[in-house]
Specification:
By secondary structure, this protein is mainly alpha-helical. It has a domain at about 45-80. The protein is about 40% helix and about 0% strand. It is built from 3 helices and no strands. The longest helix has 12 residues, at about 70-80. It is extended. The protein starts with 11 loop residues before the first helix and ends with a helix.
Length: about 80
């Protein structure tokens, strides 16, 4: 076992659960779940379209250093 494991911080969801102990939320407010779980909202159309348009490429991994287009886009973003 890794001897450095005790140095890790608690998992954020575990910390949140501890912080919420003994607290009663206001009854007139809608609950906002901040726990781990599946998404509760529909997938945005732009995301679905991009996935479907590129579904054939999901069968292979990109190069280790990533696609040139991705590296260029990241470089431009960092430059801003």
């Amino acid at each position: 076992m890794n001897p450095h494991l005790p140095q890790l911080h608690p998992y954020s969801v575990e910390t949140l659960a501890h912080l919420k102990q003994g607290i009663t939320p206001p009854a007139d407010k809608e609950h906002i779940a901040l726990s781990v779980g599946e998404p509760k909202h529909a997938t945005p159309e732009v995301k679905s379209s991009a996935l479907l348009d590129n579904i054939a490429a999901l069968g292979s991994y990109p190069t280790t250093k990533g696609l040139a287009e991705l590296r260029i886009a990241i470089g431009k973003w960092l430059g801003r």
